[in-house]
Amino acid sequence: MTALKLVPHLVAFFGMATVALRGATRRGMLAGAALAGFLGGAGLAATLTGSVPGEFTYSLLRALLALPFLLLCAVSFAALYLSVGGKLPLARLERVAGWPLTRTLGLLVASAGAGAVAGTRLGGALPLWGWGALAAAAACLALAALLLESRLPATLTTSRAGFIALTVALLLFSASWSTRLDLFAPLTMKVMKFTHDFVHQFFESMLIPDHLFIHSYLWGYIGLLFGKEVGFWGGLVIWFTPVVMVLLAIRLERLPSVGHLRQGAQRRRMLAEAIRARRLRLVLPGIAVLLLAYAVYRSLYPSVEYWDPKPVPVTANAGGEIFLPRKGEIDLMDGKLHKFLYQQGGKTARFFVLLAPSGKLTVDLDACAICKPDGYGQAEGTVLCYYCKTLIPLETVGKPGGCNPVPVEFTEKDDGIHLNGVTLINTWSGTVQSTTRTMEKGK
Description:
By secondary structure, this protein is of the alpha+beta class.
Protein backbone atom coordinates (compact mmCIF):
# COMPACT_ATOMS: atom_id res chain seq x y z
CA MET A 1 0.00 0.00 0.00
CA THR A 2 2.87 2.40 0.75
CA ALA A 3 4.24 1.89 -2.76
CA LEU A 4 0.86 2.72 -4.31
CA LYS A 5 0.69 5.95 -2.31
CA LEU A 6 3.88 7.16 -3.96
CA VAL A 7 2.79 6.54 -7.57
CA PRO A 8 1.23 10.01 -8.18
CA HIS A 9 4.29 11.75 -6.75
CA LEU A 10 6.66 9.66 -8.86
CA VAL A 11 4.55 10.50 -11.91
CA ALA A 12 4.82 14.21 -11.07
CA PHE A 13 8.59 13.85 -10.68
CA PHE A 14 8.84 12.07 -14.03
CA GLY A 15 6.81 14.80 -15.74
CA MET A 16 8.94 17.58 -14.27
CA ALA A 17 12.16 15.91 -15.36
CA THR A 18 10.91 15.21 -18.89
CA VAL A 19 9.73 18.77 -19.49
CA ALA A 20 12.86 20.35 -18.00
CA LEU A 21 15.07 18.31 -20.34
CA ARG A 22 13.31 19.70 -23.43
CA GLY A 23 15.82 21.84 -25.31
CA ALA A 24 18.46 21.58 -22.55
CA THR A 25 22.17 21.18 -23.22
CA ARG A 26 23.42 19.55 -20.02
CA ARG A 27 20.76 16.89 -19.83
CA GLY A 28 22.70 14.56 -17.54
CA MET A 29 23.21 17.30 -14.96
CA LEU A 30 19.49 18.12 -15.07
CA ALA A 31 18.48 14.48 -14.55
CA GLY A 32 20.88 14.22 -11.61
CA ALA A 33 19.50 17.43 -10.07
CA ALA A 34 15.95 16.12 -10.41
CA LEU A 35 16.88 12.83 -8.72
CA ALA A 36 18.78 14.54 -5.90
CA GLY A 37 15.96 17.00 -5.30
CA PHE A 38 13.26 14.33 -5.14
CA LEU A 39 15.14 12.06 -2.77
CA GLY A 40 16.32 14.96 -0.60
CA GLY A 41 12.83 16.40 -0.31
CA ALA A 42 11.30 13.00 0.48
CA GLY A 43 13.88 12.24 3.16
CA LEU A 44 13.59 15.63 4.85
CA ALA A 45 9.78 15.65 4.86
CA ALA A 46 9.55 12.06 6.11
CA THR A 47 11.96 12.86 8.95
CA LEU A 48 10.06 16.00 9.96
CA THR A 49 6.69 14.26 9.81
CA GLY A 50 7.92 11.39 11.94
CA SER A 51 9.80 13.48 14.51
CA VAL A 52 7.88 16.76 14.80
CA PRO A 53 4.35 16.22 16.13
CA GLY A 54 1.39 18.29 15.08
CA GLU A 55 0.69 20.25 11.93
CA PHE A 56 4.05 22.03 11.60
CA THR A 57 5.37 20.03 8.64
CA TYR A 58 2.10 20.21 6.72
CA SER A 59 1.63 23.94 7.36
CA LEU A 60 5.19 24.67 6.25
CA LEU A 61 4.86 22.59 3.11
CA ARG A 62 1.49 24.14 2.18
CA ALA A 63 3.07 27.59 2.44
CA LEU A 64 6.01 26.51 0.28
CA LEU A 65 3.68 24.99 -2.32
CA ALA A 66 1.78 28.27 -2.54
CA LEU A 67 4.92 30.17 -3.56
CA PRO A 68 5.27 28.51 -7.02
CA PHE A 69 1.61 29.29 -7.68
CA LEU A 70 2.24 32.96 -6.89
CA LEU A 71 5.29 32.85 -9.19
CA LEU A 72 3.10 31.41 -11.95
CA CYS A 73 0.62 34.26 -11.46
CA ALA A 74 3.39 36.85 -11.93
CA VAL A 75 4.85 35.02 -14.95
CA SER A 76 1.45 34.66 -16.61
CA PHE A 77 0.67 38.39 -16.26
CA ALA A 78 4.08 39.31 -17.69
CA ALA A 79 3.77 36.82 -20.57
CA LEU A 80 0.33 38.08 -21.56
CA TYR A 81 1.45 41.70 -21.34
CA LEU A 82 4.47 41.05 -23.55
CA SER A 83 2.42 39.07 -26.09
CA VAL A 84 0.19 42.06 -26.81
CA GLY A 85 3.13 44.37 -27.45
CA GLY A 86 3.91 45.53 -23.95
CA LYS A 87 7.47 46.23 -22.88
CA LEU A 88 9.03 45.31 -19.57
CA PRO A 89 12.60 45.94 -18.33
CA LEU A 90 13.24 42.20 -18.15
CA ALA A 91 16.19 41.81 -20.47
CA ARG A 92 18.62 40.91 -17.70
CA LEU A 93 16.05 38.62 -16.06
CA GLU A 94 15.49 36.89 -19.40
CA ARG A 95 19.22 36.20 -19.70
CA VAL A 96 19.32 34.80 -16.16
CA ALA A 97 16.30 32.61 -16.85
CA GLY A 98 18.04 31.16 -19.89
CA TRP A 99 21.13 30.03 -18.01
CA PRO A 100 21.54 26.25 -17.64
CA LEU A 101 22.27 26.73 -13.94
CA THR A 102 18.96 28.54 -13.46
CA ARG A 103 17.05 25.70 -15.09
CA THR A 104 18.95 23.17 -12.98
CA LEU A 105 18.20 24.98 -9.72
CA GLY A 106 14.55 25.37 -10.70
CA LEU A 107 14.22 21.66 -11.42
CA LEU A 108 16.04 20.83 -8.18
CA VAL A 109 13.57 22.90 -6.15
CA ALA A 110 10.50 21.61 -8.01
CA SER A 111 11.60 17.98 -7.64
CA ALA A 112 12.28 18.57 -3.96
CA GLY A 113 8.70 19.81 -3.62
CA ALA A 114 7.30 16.67 -5.23
CA GLY A 115 9.59 14.56 -3.04
CA ALA A 116 8.52 16.42 0.10
CA VAL A 117 4.86 15.73 -0.65
CA ALA A 118 5.74 12.06 -1.08
CA GLY A 119 7.76 12.12 2.15
CA THR A 120 4.81 13.33 4.21
CA ARG A 121 2.90 10.24 3.13
CA LEU A 122 5.73 8.02 4.35
CA GLY A 123 5.88 9.61 7.79
CA GLY A 124 9.33 8.19 8.50
CA ALA A 125 7.92 4.65 8.57
CA LEU A 126 9.82 3.35 5.53
CA PRO A 127 12.56 0.80 6.34
CA LEU A 128 16.06 1.06 4.90
CA TRP A 129 15.33 -1.34 2.06
CA GLY A 130 12.23 0.73 1.27
CA TRP A 131 14.33 3.85 0.87
CA GLY A 132 16.64 1.90 -1.42
CA ALA A 133 13.66 0.82 -3.53
CA LEU A 134 12.40 4.41 -3.68
CA ALA A 135 15.84 5.65 -4.80
CA ALA A 136 16.01 2.94 -7.46
CA ALA A 137 12.51 3.79 -8.74
CA ALA A 138 13.32 7.50 -8.91
CA ALA A 139 16.61 6.78 -10.72
CA CYS A 140 14.79 4.62 -13.27
CA LEU A 141 12.27 7.38 -13.86
CA ALA A 142 15.04 9.96 -14.32
CA LEU A 143 16.64 7.67 -16.91
CA ALA A 144 13.26 7.11 -18.56
CA ALA A 145 12.79 10.88 -18.75
CA LEU A 146 16.12 11.16 -20.57
CA LEU A 147 15.15 8.46 -23.05
CA LEU A 148 11.64 9.80 -23.63
CA GLU A 149 12.80 13.37 -24.16
CA SER A 150 15.36 12.27 -26.75
CA ARG A 151 12.59 10.63 -28.77
CA LEU A 152 10.14 13.52 -28.70
CA PRO A 153 9.81 15.40 -32.00
CA ALA A 154 12.06 18.43 -32.29
CA THR A 155 9.06 20.59 -33.21
CA LEU A 156 7.56 20.08 -29.74
CA THR A 157 8.97 23.16 -28.03
CA THR A 158 7.79 25.14 -25.04
CA SER A 159 7.86 28.68 -23.79
CA ARG A 160 9.27 29.49 -20.36
CA ALA A 161 5.78 30.42 -19.17
CA GLY A 162 4.43 27.09 -20.42
CA PHE A 163 7.23 25.21 -18.71
CA ILE A 164 6.54 26.96 -15.40
CA ALA A 165 2.79 26.39 -15.78
CA LEU A 166 3.16 22.65 -16.23
CA THR A 167 5.73 22.35 -13.44
CA VAL A 168 3.47 24.16 -10.96
CA ALA A 169 0.47 22.11 -12.11
CA LEU A 170 2.43 18.90 -11.48
CA LEU A 171 3.27 20.10 -7.97
CA LEU A 172 -0.37 20.92 -7.21
CA PHE A 173 -1.47 17.62 -8.75
CA SER A 174 0.96 15.81 -6.46
CA ALA A 175 -0.26 17.74 -3.40
CA SER A 176 -3.92 16.98 -4.18
CA TRP A 177 -3.35 13.31 -3.31
CA SER A 178 -2.86 14.30 0.32
CA THR A 179 -5.89 15.82 2.04
CA ARG A 180 -3.62 17.67 4.46
CA LEU A 181 -1.66 19.32 1.62
CA ASP A 182 -4.52 20.03 -0.78
CA LEU A 183 -4.51 23.75 -1.62
CA PHE A 184 -7.81 24.14 -3.47
CA ALA A 185 -10.11 23.56 -0.47
CA PRO A 186 -8.31 26.19 1.71
CA LEU A 187 -8.42 28.59 -1.25
CA THR A 188 -12.20 28.27 -1.61
CA MET A 189 -12.61 28.71 2.14
CA LYS A 190 -10.56 31.91 2.13
CA VAL A 191 -12.50 33.28 -0.84
CA MET A 192 -15.79 32.47 0.87
CA LYS A 193 -14.72 34.04 4.17
CA PHE A 194 -13.37 37.16 2.44
CA THR A 195 -16.63 37.58 0.51
CA HIS A 196 -18.76 37.06 3.60
CA ASP A 197 -16.70 39.51 5.67
CA PHE A 198 -16.54 42.14 2.92
CA VAL A 199 -20.26 42.11 2.17
CA HIS A 200 -21.15 42.08 5.86
CA GLN A 201 -18.86 45.02 6.66
CA PHE A 202 -20.08 46.93 3.60
CA PHE A 203 -23.69 46.47 4.64
CA GLU A 204 -22.95 47.52 8.20
CA SER A 205 -20.95 50.61 7.23
CA MET A 206 -23.54 51.76 4.66
CA LEU A 207 -26.51 50.86 6.88
CA ILE A 208 -27.97 48.98 3.91
CA PRO A 209 -30.12 46.57 6.01
CA ASP A 210 -32.22 49.60 7.05
CA HIS A 211 -32.30 51.26 3.62
CA LEU A 212 -35.81 51.99 2.35
CA PHE A 213 -34.99 51.16 -1.26
CA ILE A 214 -33.74 47.61 -0.64
CA HIS A 215 -36.69 45.37 -1.40
CA SER A 216 -37.10 41.94 0.16
CA TYR A 217 -36.67 40.06 -3.13
CA LEU A 218 -33.21 41.63 -3.53
CA TRP A 219 -32.05 39.77 -0.45
CA GLY A 220 -32.46 36.54 -2.41
CA TYR A 221 -29.74 37.68 -4.80
CA ILE A 222 -27.57 39.16 -2.07
CA GLY A 223 -27.90 35.88 -0.18
CA LEU A 224 -26.02 34.13 -2.99
CA LEU A 225 -22.87 35.86 -1.76
CA PHE A 226 -23.25 34.12 1.60
CA GLY A 227 -23.39 30.57 0.22
CA LYS A 228 -20.43 28.24 -0.03
CA GLU A 229 -20.75 28.29 -3.83
CA VAL A 230 -19.19 31.75 -3.97
CA GLY A 231 -16.03 30.27 -2.50
CA PHE A 232 -16.02 27.40 -4.99
CA TRP A 233 -16.50 29.55 -8.10
CA GLY A 234 -14.16 32.23 -6.85
CA GLY A 235 -11.56 29.57 -6.12
CA LEU A 236 -11.93 28.17 -9.64
CA VAL A 237 -11.31 31.61 -11.14
CA ILE A 238 -8.13 32.11 -9.13
CA TRP A 239 -7.01 28.50 -9.66
CA PHE A 240 -7.22 28.51 -13.48
CA THR A 241 -6.57 32.17 -14.35
CA PRO A 242 -2.72 31.94 -14.50
CA VAL A 243 -2.70 28.95 -16.86
CA VAL A 244 -5.44 30.44 -19.04
CA MET A 245 -3.39 33.63 -19.30
CA VAL A 246 -0.35 31.59 -20.38
CA LEU A 247 -2.49 29.94 -23.08
CA LEU A 248 -3.69 33.37 -24.24
CA ALA A 249 -0.14 34.72 -24.23
CA ILE A 250 1.03 31.91 -26.50
CA ARG A 251 -2.04 32.20 -28.73
CA LEU A 252 -1.50 35.96 -29.14
CA GLU A 253 2.19 35.67 -30.01
CA ARG A 254 2.98 37.70 -33.08
CA LEU A 255 3.86 35.82 -36.24
CA PRO A 256 7.22 36.59 -37.90
CA SER A 257 7.36 39.36 -40.46
CA VAL A 258 7.46 38.02 -44.03
CA GLY A 259 7.34 41.32 -45.89
CA HIS A 260 10.99 41.02 -46.91
CA LEU A 261 10.36 37.71 -48.72
CA ARG A 262 9.43 38.03 -52.39
CA GLN A 263 8.33 34.45 -53.04
CA GLY A 264 4.76 33.76 -51.93
CA ALA A 265 5.44 30.08 -51.38
CA GLN A 266 8.30 30.88 -49.03
CA ARG A 267 6.17 33.36 -47.11
CA ARG A 268 3.34 30.84 -46.75
CA ARG A 269 5.75 28.14 -45.61
CA MET A 270 7.32 30.36 -42.98
CA LEU A 271 3.93 31.43 -41.64
CA ALA A 272 2.66 27.85 -41.59
CA GLU A 273 5.72 26.70 -39.65
CA ALA A 274 5.33 29.55 -37.16
CA ILE A 275 1.63 28.76 -36.64
CA ARG A 276 2.39 25.07 -36.18
CA ALA A 277 5.14 25.83 -33.65
CA ARG A 278 2.80 28.16 -31.76
CA ARG A 279 0.12 25.48 -31.58
CA LEU A 280 2.63 22.96 -30.26
CA ARG A 281 3.63 25.40 -27.53
CA LEU A 282 0.01 25.23 -26.32
CA VAL A 283 0.42 21.53 -25.47
CA LEU A 284 2.19 21.96 -22.12
CA PRO A 285 -0.15 24.59 -20.61
CA GLY A 286 -3.06 22.55 -22.00
CA ILE A 287 -1.83 19.55 -20.02
CA ALA A 288 -1.46 21.88 -17.01
CA VAL A 289 -5.17 22.76 -17.26
CA LEU A 290 -6.08 19.06 -17.16
CA LEU A 291 -3.83 18.46 -14.14
CA LEU A 292 -5.33 21.41 -12.26
CA ALA A 293 -8.83 20.19 -13.09
CA TYR A 294 -7.97 16.76 -11.67
CA ALA A 295 -6.57 18.42 -8.54
CA VAL A 296 -9.93 20.18 -8.09
CA TYR A 297 -11.71 16.84 -8.50
CA ARG A 298 -9.47 15.25 -5.88
CA SER A 299 -10.20 18.13 -3.53
CA LEU A 300 -13.97 17.82 -3.98
CA TYR A 301 -14.05 14.02 -3.86
CA PRO A 302 -11.08 12.79 -1.78
CA SER A 303 -10.48 9.07 -1.58
CA VAL A 304 -10.24 9.32 2.21
CA GLU A 305 -13.19 7.79 4.05
CA TYR A 306 -14.05 9.98 7.02
CA TRP A 307 -15.20 8.49 10.32
CA ASP A 308 -18.65 9.99 10.84
CA PRO A 309 -20.66 8.02 13.43
CA LYS A 310 -24.40 8.43 13.83
CA PRO A 311 -25.20 10.71 16.82
CA VAL A 312 -26.26 8.76 19.93
CA PRO A 313 -29.20 10.30 21.87
CA VAL A 314 -28.39 11.21 25.48
CA THR A 315 -30.49 12.51 28.37
CA ALA A 316 -29.89 14.63 31.45
CA ASN A 317 -30.65 13.77 35.06
CA ALA A 318 -33.08 15.71 37.26
CA GLY A 319 -30.42 18.35 37.87
CA GLY A 320 -29.94 18.94 34.14
CA GLU A 321 -26.53 17.22 34.02
CA ILE A 322 -25.45 14.98 31.13
CA PHE A 323 -23.06 12.18 32.07
CA LEU A 324 -20.92 10.23 29.59
CA PRO A 325 -18.80 7.39 31.04
CA ARG A 326 -15.25 7.02 29.86
CA LYS A 327 -15.80 3.42 28.88
CA GLY A 328 -18.98 1.51 28.32
CA GLU A 329 -20.88 0.85 25.13
CA ILE A 330 -18.86 3.74 23.72
CA ASP A 331 -15.17 4.01 24.55
CA LEU A 332 -14.37 7.72 24.72
CA MET A 333 -10.66 6.96 25.07
CA ASP A 334 -10.23 5.12 21.74
CA GLY A 335 -9.17 8.25 19.83
CA LYS A 336 -12.27 8.29 17.61
CA LEU A 337 -14.79 11.08 17.28
CA HIS A 338 -18.05 10.13 19.05
CA LYS A 339 -21.21 12.14 18.32
CA PHE A 340 -24.19 12.65 20.62
CA LEU A 341 -27.63 14.25 20.36
CA TYR A 342 -29.39 16.06 23.22
CA GLN A 343 -32.97 17.35 23.15
CA GLN A 344 -34.60 19.70 25.65
CA GLY A 345 -37.74 21.80 25.41
CA GLY A 346 -38.13 21.27 21.68
CA LYS A 347 -34.53 22.27 21.00
CA THR A 348 -31.78 19.94 19.79
CA ALA A 349 -28.00 20.17 20.16
CA ARG A 350 -25.47 17.95 18.44
CA PHE A 351 -22.00 17.57 19.92
CA PHE A 352 -19.04 15.22 19.96
CA VAL A 353 -16.35 13.99 22.33
CA LEU A 354 -12.81 13.38 21.09
CA LEU A 355 -9.55 12.32 22.70
CA ALA A 356 -7.00 14.97 21.70
CA PRO A 357 -3.37 14.07 20.87
CA SER A 358 -2.44 15.63 24.23
CA GLY A 359 -4.30 12.78 25.96
CA LYS A 360 -7.17 14.95 27.22
CA LEU A 361 -10.81 14.70 26.22
CA THR A 362 -12.54 17.62 24.52
CA VAL A 363 -16.26 18.31 24.07
CA ASP A 364 -17.36 20.43 21.10
CA LEU A 365 -20.43 21.25 19.08
CA ASP A 366 -20.71 19.34 15.81
CA ALA A 367 -20.55 22.72 14.07
CA CYS A 368 -18.59 25.96 14.04
CA ALA A 369 -19.55 29.62 14.43
CA ILE A 370 -18.95 30.42 10.73
CA CYS A 371 -20.52 27.71 8.57
CA LYS A 372 -23.87 25.99 8.46
CA PRO A 373 -24.07 23.07 10.93
CA ASP A 374 -23.26 20.28 8.47
CA GLY A 375 -20.96 18.67 11.04
CA TYR A 376 -17.51 17.16 11.04
CA GLY A 377 -15.87 13.92 10.02
CA GLN A 378 -12.57 12.50 11.24
CA ALA A 379 -9.59 11.32 9.23
CA GLU A 380 -5.98 10.63 10.10
CA GLY A 381 -4.70 13.63 12.07
CA THR A 382 -7.61 15.92 11.19
CA VAL A 383 -11.33 16.57 11.33
CA LEU A 384 -13.13 17.95 8.27
CA CYS A 385 -15.84 20.60 8.16
CA TYR A 386 -18.35 19.15 5.72
CA TYR A 387 -19.69 22.57 4.72
CA CYS A 388 -16.50 24.35 3.58
CA LYS A 389 -14.18 21.30 3.38
CA THR A 390 -11.67 22.88 5.79
CA LEU A 391 -9.28 20.46 7.49
CA ILE A 392 -8.85 21.06 11.23
CA PRO A 393 -5.76 19.51 12.87
CA LEU A 394 -6.64 17.37 15.88
CA GLU A 395 -4.23 19.44 17.97
CA THR A 396 -6.47 22.51 17.59
CA VAL A 397 -9.83 20.82 18.25
CA GLY A 398 -11.19 22.26 21.48
CA LYS A 399 -9.80 25.73 20.76
CA PRO A 400 -12.23 28.45 19.63
CA GLY A 401 -11.94 30.49 16.46
CA GLY A 402 -12.22 30.14 12.70
CA CYS A 403 -13.75 26.93 11.43
CA ASN A 404 -12.81 25.02 14.57
CA PRO A 405 -15.69 23.21 16.32
CA VAL A 406 -17.20 25.40 19.03
CA PRO A 407 -15.95 24.13 22.42
CA VAL A 408 -18.49 23.32 25.16
CA GLU A 409 -17.90 23.75 28.89
CA PHE A 410 -17.59 20.41 30.67
CA THR A 411 -16.03 18.76 33.69
CA GLU A 412 -13.80 15.72 33.37
CA LYS A 413 -13.75 13.35 36.36
CA ASP A 414 -12.43 9.88 36.95
CA ASP A 415 -15.74 8.30 35.95
CA GLY A 416 -16.26 10.29 32.77
CA ILE A 417 -17.58 13.53 31.27
CA HIS A 418 -20.10 15.81 33.01
CA LEU A 419 -21.73 18.74 31.21
CA ASN A 420 -24.74 20.96 31.78
CA GLY A 421 -27.64 20.41 29.39
CA VAL A 422 -28.84 24.03 29.54
CA THR A 423 -25.35 25.31 28.75
CA LEU A 424 -25.14 22.92 25.81
CA ILE A 425 -28.49 24.04 24.38
CA ASN A 426 -27.64 27.72 24.87
CA THR A 427 -24.25 27.30 23.22
CA TRP A 428 -25.87 25.62 20.23
CA SER A 429 -28.61 28.25 19.94
CA GLY A 430 -26.25 31.17 20.39
CA THR A 431 -23.83 30.13 17.67
CA VAL A 432 -25.13 27.58 15.19
CA GLN A 433 -28.74 28.69 14.87
CA SER A 434 -27.86 32.37 14.65
CA THR A 435 -25.28 31.61 11.96
CA THR A 436 -27.83 29.60 9.99
CA ARG A 437 -30.41 32.39 10.14
CA THR A 438 -27.87 34.99 9.06
CA MET A 439 -26.71 32.97 6.06
CA GLU A 440 -30.24 32.08 4.97
CA LYS A 441 -31.37 35.72 5.08
CA GLY A 442 -28.22 36.90 3.35
CA LYS A 443 -27.42 39.47 5.98
